């Protein structure tokens, strides 16, 4: 693809938008500038390709396409069928999955689709069979009432939030926690690693309907073969939410026991994190859950977004190319270089390192809360997010951790040498930041001081580091 074509495409698009609402065109342009200038270490973000971005901005957005490929509730869906079928085919081939459902609008939506597919398969279907009816509308009022209670009385076992689990894995503030009676498994306080014997024990005691694997802030591989065995031993459905690390599965960095797809009954993911596609979600499953998964819309999802499914097809096609495996390996190499760089300078890391795309710094070693560290780094042009560490004394708001990830910077082309320089910048900012005090003299969890001159200097060094690796080198909006 010529760089000229990319520039022309985006420049023309902005011209068309500018004619209607120039402030939107300006904001889009400003967003590109901001993204180009910041050292983006947010573990859940990435940069989608120009082809992926362009596939979203078109008339597919105008189409209603409730239903599935070839079975729509609306007429005229033949072109939506083409892109949805393509996206699903690429997903099946890429991940070696029996079935792929590409309609979810986000990771949270994908999880809801999965939960209700499992509930339908394991709770609703048996109830219909027992009542000898084909569908819920045929149940008596009494049977329907009983079924609704039964649906709301199921159990889920997932990874605890402070060990790196996700809010949608049965935690009370999320709808999943209102649907399920939830227990969680944590990590070993000494090593920070998942203790599979403890998971097995919790499963035996709690007997969940669903055992959930997957995380958003755990820096290590997870053995999905063992988790499947645990699920089988208690008759649970094994679900894996690979939202964060789908790119590492796609790129064959996680194989064998560490690839969730052959081991889980159902796998959910986002498409915009390490997978580097459009903002969206996806469900992969074993054949026996396929029909229930395909009912995701309108069960829990609004109408499909055909323009995003088109972009998913493009991004998944990209992920099937050999250079994506190289990209995935570089993500991990970079995360390990960043971890090494931080450790060698004296930082404290949860689990002492990483074997995926993310590193969790325990910033209590610097005498800071996650919130203070996050803001000080931001002042210095380094974009990260604060995150709980296991048994976090500062709670989920202030936290004691900083989560950093390499998928985005790796897309730009930064390598292990630049990761060491990045570690130096982070360490400099965190050692030079001091925690502040409240008016009454008690330690503040939010206030901090950092010499603005130093912050500026680091921000310039961060910009210099990025200068060699332009973001979207083919796009010139000037
Ligand atoms: C990011 C994430 C989600 C949510 O994805 P959204 O697209 O923001 O809805 C769900 N599960 C896990 C494990 C995640 O990391």
UniProtKB/TrEMBL annotation:
Positions marked as site (Plays an important role in substrate specificity): 272
Chief localisation class: cytoplasm
EC number: 2.1.2.1
Leading EC class: transferase
SUPFAM superfamilies membership: PLP-dependent transferases
Annotated family: Belongs to the SHMT family.
Protein name, UniProt field: Serine hydroxymethyltransferase
Annotated source species: Micromonospora vinacea
Encoding gene (name): glyA
């Amino acid at each position: 693809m010529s760089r000229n074509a990319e520039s022309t495409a985006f420049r023309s698009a902005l011209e068309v938008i500018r004619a209607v609402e120039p402030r939107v065109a300006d904001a889009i342009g400003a967003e590109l500038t901001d993204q180009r200038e910041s050292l983006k270490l947010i573990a859940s973000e990435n940069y989608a390709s120009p082809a992926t971005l362009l596939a979203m901005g078109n008339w597919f957005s105008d189409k209603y396409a409730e239903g599935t490929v070839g079975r729509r509730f609306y007429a005229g869906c033949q072109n939506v069928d083409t892109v949805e079928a393509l996206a699903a085919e690429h997903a099946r081939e890429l991940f070696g999955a029996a079935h792929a459902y590409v309609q979810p609008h986000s990771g949270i939506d994908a999880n809801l689709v999965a939960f209700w597919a499992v509930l339908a398969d394991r709770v609703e279907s048996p109830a219909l069979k027992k009542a000898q009816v084909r569908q819920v509308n045929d149940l008596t009022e009494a049977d329907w009432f009983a079924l609704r209670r039964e649906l709301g009385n199921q159990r889920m076992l997932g990874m605890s939030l402070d060990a790196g689990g996700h809010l949608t894995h049965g935690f009370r503030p999320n709808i999943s926690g209102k649907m399920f009676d939830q227990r969680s498994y944590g990590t070993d306080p000494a090593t920070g690693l998942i203790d599979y014997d403890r998971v097995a024990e919790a499963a035996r005691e709690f007997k969940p309907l669903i055992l959930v694997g997957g995380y958003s802030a755990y820096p290590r591989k997870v053995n999905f073969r063992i988790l499947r065995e645990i699920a089988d031993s208690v008759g649970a459905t094994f679900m894996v939410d690979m939202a964060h690390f789908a790119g590492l599965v796609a790129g064959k960095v996680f194989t064998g026991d560490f690839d969730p797809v052959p081991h889980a009954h159902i796998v959910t993911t986002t498409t915009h994190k390490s997978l580097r596609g459009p903002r969206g979600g996806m469900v992969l499953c074993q054949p026996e859950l396929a029909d229930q998964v395909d009912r995701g819309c309108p069960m829990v999802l609004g109408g499909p977004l055909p323009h995003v499914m088109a972009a998913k097809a493009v991004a998944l096609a990209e992920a099937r190319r050999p250079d994506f495996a190289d990209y995935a390996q570089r993500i991990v190499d970079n995360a390990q270089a960043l971890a090494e760089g931080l450790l060698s300078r004296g930082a404290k890391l949860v689990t002492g390192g990483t074997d995926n795309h993310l590193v969790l710094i325990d910033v209590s070693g610097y005498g800071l809360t996650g919130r203070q560290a996050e803001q000080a780094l931001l002042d210095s042009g380094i974009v990260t997010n604060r995150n709980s560490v296991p048994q976090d004394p500062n709670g989920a708001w202030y936290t004691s951790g900083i989560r950093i990830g390499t998928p985005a910077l790796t897309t730009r082309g930064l390598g292990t040498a630049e990761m060491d320089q990045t570690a130096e910048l982070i360490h400099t900012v965190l050692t030079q930041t001091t925690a502040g005090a409240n008016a009454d003299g008690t330690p503040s969890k939010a206030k901090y001081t950092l010499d603005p001159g130093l912050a500026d200097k680091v921000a310039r060094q961060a910009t210099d580091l990025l200068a060699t690796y332009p973001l979207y080198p083919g796009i010139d909006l000037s």
